[in-house]
């Protein structure tokens, strides 16, 4: 802000902030794009690839991530250990069961630029499967980012007034017996 | 079983349904027009109300035909299908549970088309939206009763999902996705809802 002193303005521009994202019921790809943009520093007008202006991101509740479509069964994560016979293919569901942090980590890793800065940026990404965060990270957080996907309401979460306000579209015929 | 289905039919959301306390019997005067409010209702389809009266040793079970509360006028009353009558043709999705719940049974199944009066394409769209809503977990109270499950298998992994087109057990993993020009895409949503109104700039992507 222009009302700050020069040193305060300098500090505010170049400080490394900590962002929090709640991944509950969110698609991991959308979470990963938000993370990748902020880890590189592309959300800042002072961005330059060599100026190390990326921020820290904390992702929580990755255990409750939601894939669209049938990706839990169809999407396959492959890896090769380098040894003969070391080719492993796991579906997203199997990988998530084995390690709930892996899907988000792999998505962000694939979205970062393929250079030597990638590992430093991954070190600034902190993923937690539940919503329990360690105290030192909690103390550093500055902003929570809004969730990319709107979580739909379950039928049991609607109040009776909202249910009554919705008009009935059709009346059943007199002879019909509801089972 | 019958009692359970009666309780279920009582519980389905029909307007004008009144539930009384079960158990205690109230004695009425014979022959007078008894107000329905103080009566005990055992079974109600919303159109008929069964009232039980106890006079000494005799029990009288009567069915009173209720006046259905006047539904507000639909904007297009001339159309045959209820969705066209309310001008909701291309405007609903799997998230509109209040709309979808009007066409399903208490155990989650869809009502027949000849009863609801839907046209064929809308019936199919509602069917696929209901399927997607079930798989997304938006209709938690409309699950079918498990058939006398003695051996409770280990609980399945509860994974959050949405816009699932195919049933979970029927899908195989895509081990070889192929190159960009011949990629095997993963299906999301349904092509039946392709004509839905889209207020954003990007169109709906069905092949991920």
Description:
The complex is a heterodimer of chains A (179) and B (208). With 179 residues, chain A is an alpha/beta fold. Chain A is built from eight helices and seven strands; from the N terminus they run H-E-H-E-E-H-E-E-H-H-H-E-H-E-H. Chain A has helices spanning 6-14, 28-40, 71-74, 92-98, 102-111, 117-123, 135-140, 160-165, and strands at 18-22, 56-60, 66-68, 76-80, 87-91, 125-127, 143-144. In chain A, the strands form two sheets. A four-stranded parallel sheet of chain A has the order 6-2-1-7. Chain A has a two-stranded antiparallel sheet with strand order 4-5. In chain A, helix 2 (28-40) packs across helix 5. Chain A is flat. Chain B is α+β, with helices and mostly antiparallel strands and 208 residues long. Chain B has helices spanning 2-11, 82-85, 97-100, 113-116, 120-136, and strands at residues 41-44, 48-55, 58-65, 160-162. Chain B has a three-stranded antiparallel sheet with strand order 1-2-3. Chains A and B meet through strand 3, helix 3, helix 4 and helix 8 of A and helix 2, helix 3 and strand 4 of B. Strand 3 (66-68) of chain A pairs parallel with strand 4 of chain B.
